[in-house]
Amino acid sequence: MYPFPQSVSPAVRTHMDAQTAFLNDMSKSMFRSFQQICDLNIQLVQTMLEESTLASQQVLSADRQTEIFTAASSRAQPATEKLRAYQQHISRLAADAQVELARVTEQHVQNTTRTARALVDEVARTTAEETERNLRTQQDAMRNATDPFVRGNGDARGDGDAQRGQTEARQGAQQAAGQGGRTAGAPTH
């Protein structure tokens, strides 16, 4: 009913297990990196909010315009330094994520490659067996289609039985005639 076997072969199972382990470790690594970037973004937003709150307080508490400009410019320098530090942290996290992904890949590549080779070998073997079986079935079907009355040994079914029966009857008659002639020609006492 189904074109594929219902049971899963051991080669498929081990390859799927190796692939699953590889993908699980990759996703864990990527999730950790994403979580670190999110934490860094939250930290940056908190810091920027604190800085803007302090700048707003200084601007609102200023009596003269020069104090307003001084307060705004004094807060601009720390904000740029924090953005530069943020950029460096992002670069470091990206590099760390790349190193971690390379480590996970290196850790799983040998096992995954080995299981993939075993799977390919099994598929090739199974395919060759199926091809040979189908070829034999097709040859038998062609043989039966060309002469449906021919048996496996080449005799025709109806004619061969009749001919064989006639031959056996002749041989039986000859043997009986040979034995009857001997007994008829033998002296009786």
SSE string: HHH
- pLDDT < 50 stretches: 181-186
How many beta-strand runs? Answer: 0
Spatial separation of the terminal alpha carbons: 81 Å
Mind telling me the C-alpha Rg? Answer: 46 Å
* Shape assignment: rod-shaped
Major sheet: none
Structural class: mainly alpha
Residue-averaged pLDDT:
79
Domain count: 1
Helix content: over 70%
Helix count, DSSP H or I runs of 4 or more residues? 3
% residues in beta strands? under 5%
Entry keywords:
mainly alpha, rod-shaped, 189 residues, single chain
Describe the structure.
There is one protein chain. The chain has 189 residues and is mostly helical. It has one domain (10-146). 86% of the residues lie in helices and 0% in strands. It contains three helices and no strands. Helix 1 runs antiparallel to helix 2 (65-146). The longest helix has 82 residues, at 65-146. It is rod-shaped. The relative contact order is 0.08. Mean pLDDT is 79; it is low at 181-186.
Write the layout of secondary structure elements.
Layout: H1 10-61, H2 65-146, H3 157-185
Helix pairs in contact: 1-2
Give a nutshell description of this structure:
Helices cover 86% and strands 0% of the residues. By secondary structure, the protein is an all-alpha fold.
